[in-house]
Amino acid sequence: MNRFDGKIAMVTGASSGIGQAVAMRLAHEGATVLCLDVAAAALQATVDQIRADGGHASSLLCDVSNISQVKNVFSHCLAQYGKLDVLVNSAGVIRLDHATNITDETWQKIINVNLTGTFFMCREAIPHLVASKGNIVNISSTSAIRGLPYGIAYAASKGGVSALTKSIAVEYARQGIRANTVCPGSIDTNMQKESGLPKDIDWQLIPRIASINGHVGKPSDVASLVALLASEQDGSHINGAEYIVDGGTTV
Ligand SMILES: NC(=O)c1ccc[n+]([C@@H]2O[C@H](COP(=O)([O-])OP(=O)(O)OC[C@H]3O[C@@H](n4cnc5c(N)ncnc54)[C@H](O)[C@@H]3O)[C@@H](O)[C@H]2O)c1
Fold first, then answer.
1. CA–CA separation, 18 vs 31, rounded Å?
2. Alpha-carbon distance 120 to 179, whole Å?
3. Closest CA to 230 of 64, 52, 10
4. Any idea what the CATH number is for the domain that residue 28 is in?
5. Alpha carbon of 1 to ligand 1 centroid (Å)
6. 115 in helix, strand or coil?
7. To test ligand 1's pocket by mutation, which of 12, 22, 37 has the most ligand atoms within 8 angstroms of CB?
8. Residues in contact with 183: Cβ distance below 8 Å, sequence separation at least 6, in sequence order
9. pLDDT tens digit string along 161-208?
10. C-alpha angle 189-157-96 in degrees, rounded to nearest 5
């Protein structure tokens, strides 16, 4: 018996990095996974990999910051699978720059995708999760806990993700929903490679970004914890928690 046999899971940001690793892990453990992202070719590649591994998955293009696309995903999920057991929000964007250089547009984009997108997904999912006694795992960041030099908008968006997840946890605990947050530190993904740093940085701040143990984490390091939290078997009494996966950097 696998931990997610018979479960329907939805994963945003499933084309790449942490979201992809989570989708693959949940499917490997028996879930049928509806993979969501804006990057079409890579999304299909995730589904192909899951199927090659013997798992079950399908995909839909969905910009999580677009409410009509989000609503469409839930209509599709219910029509196709009849329920939703697990929602993992991993879709995210980052832009690093000096706080004074962050434009209105950059601020809005990061808040729209990371925070409002997570809110849209959670809001639409909650009635279905009440029905299934399901749960949510939101991917926040250690920047929500300790700030991020050159990441003012990103850290603010992740602070919001952590807070909204705890709010869902307390508001819906008595209706059987659990909601937990995972805060990764430095993880080896496209976001990590492409985030870049602005010119004229203060190098003394960089140890706050780099992993203390000398290497970046793997997406699968995060996926293992997400699977534990999302599992009824192992996570049933874990609710409103915020778990750090950063090799000890934040401590
Ligand atoms: N990599 C890290 O070091 C790190 C650290 C802490 C937190 N995180 C968080 O982990 C999550 C996953 O990031 P990752 O590192 O795997 O990055 P990634 O770039 O590999 O994956 C992010 C995915 O989100 C998708 N996406 C972007 N905008 C979207 C939108 N509007 N709608 C739907 N999908 C969208 C991208 O296409 C991509 O596939 C993010 O929320 C990120 O903030 C990452």
1. 17
2. 15
3. 10
4. 3.40.50.720
5. 31
6. helix
7. 37
8. 140, 141, 142, 144, 145, 158, 162, 242, 243, 244, 245, 246, 250
9. 999 999 999 999 999 999 999 999 999 999 989 988 999 999 999 888
10. 55
Is residue 154 among the annotated active site residues?
yes
Structural domain total, the chain? 1
Share of the chain above pLDDT 70, in %: 100
Q: Is residue 2 part of a domain?
A: no
For the CA of 18, the closest atom of ligand 1 is 16
Domain with 183, as residue range(s), is 8-245
Q: Would the CA dihedral through 152, 192, 145, 237 be positive or negative?
A: positive
- Taking the model in full, what pTM does it have? 0.98
3-class DSSP assignment, residue 103: coil
pLDDT of 214 above 90: no
pLDDT at 211: 87
Distance (Å) from CA 17 to ligand 1 centroid: 7
What are the DSSP calls for 63-77, one per residue?
-TT-HHHHHHHHHHH
